[in-house]
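Lecture 7 notes. Example A: sequence first, then its structure tokens.
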Amino acid sequence: QVQLVESGGGLVQPGGSLRLSCAASGIIFSIYAMGWYRQAPGKQRELVAAITSGGSTNYADSAKGRFTISRDNAKNTVYLQMNSLKPEDTAVYYCNAILQKGGIRIDYWGQGTQVTVSS
């Protein structure tokens, strides 16, 4: 059974930091690309950051310079370090694992963790 379990969300003041973690089980973690998405109330889910199996990273413009995605294949975990948080970062953050090979796409989602940026 595949599970992606996010943790690390919470309430933080503007300018503060949080580190999200996503622990994966039931997959060969090292071959999956991993991503963090977020969804604010009334908005579509959007990509925040992604990291390939080889470690290449990609960020949404809103995340560049403030957020860092990383992975630890030994721990089957992907992280999102978020600094200089803004109220507009408030959303539910979801972890995603994706594998694309030979025309086949497999992806899994976590249950989400709430991040609230407010004074």
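Example B, a different protein, same format:
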Amino acid sequence: QVQLEESGGGLVQAGGSLRLSCAVSGSIVGINSMGWYRQAPGRQRDLVAGFTSGGSTNYADSVKGRFTISRDSAKNTVYLQMNSLKPEDTAVYYCNAAGVQNWKRVNYWGQGTQVTVSS
């Protein structure tokens, strides 16, 4: 089992910055991808940024050049630095960890953290 706890959301004006943190606990053996997703009201949950199984990163086109995903293995934490925020970035942001554990595909989610960008 993996537990994910997000923090760092809040209210910010357009053009501002926020850094989200995802604290990871539990057994991460078999976890081969981690990332951030977001879900706005009435919309599906979409990938924002992630680490692939090969260790590379990928970003949604809408956030390229503005958001950066990083991780601190010593702290078991994944970060999402969000700069030049826009009102359309408003959403609940979720941390995700996925892989194979005990021969089963697993997909873990945090509880989410609200990001609101005012115009």
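Note on Example B: Residues 4 and 110 are 5 Å apart (CA to CA). The chain has no helices and eleven strands.
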